[in-house]
Amino acid sequence: MSEGAARAGDVPALVELAKQGDDEAFGILVDEYKGKIYNYVSRMLHDPTEAEDVAQEVFIRAYENLMGFRGAASFQTWLYRIASNLAIDAARARNRRDVGAFSLDRPVATDDGQLERELPTGERGPDGQVESTELQEIVAEALTELSPKLRMVISLFDIEGLSYREIADVLGCPVGTVKSRLFNARNQLRQILASRIDIEDLRTE
Description:
Elements: H1 3-8, H2 11-19, H3 23-45, H4 48-64, H5 75-97, H6 112-116, H7 126-143, H8 148-159, H9 164-171, H10 175-194
Helix pairs in contact: 2-3, 3-4, 3-5, 4-5, 5-9, 8-10, 9-10
């Protein structure tokens, strides 16, 4: 493997090396994206063990289908697409098994570290930390009331930081549809939260 590619974190170069059978290069790609993929899947499934299994399956699928990756979208976008499909499949299988009260309309999903970036930052005393935790829990619960399509788009844009174009590639829909879903997701989330907390608490600026 090219040491320069590894040091620079040159994803396209690492992908090409991995295609040539360089497992070390693929391992670097896994290390680069495993946290993001796990957090995303976790928000969709709200089951750490299942999320970990699905996240591992994402990279197994990526490895098995690496030669089919043509680079039309970024490698990250490709991984999110695989993750989205597998998370939906896992949710449906879970529904069929009829365990607990799980529903495709209410898959709980959050990662405290990620959600913290959506909340006010700064030093807090013990009381402030308790309030922050409670706020995170309220936001996490509110997210479960969004439909999977809306939760998916708000997670990819507001938490994962993908662009409209990247999300459109992940979900296989027009950019206009992404914008519409994001608008609806934020509006619904705001309405849900307004009935539970002072919306001012959610401002990040």
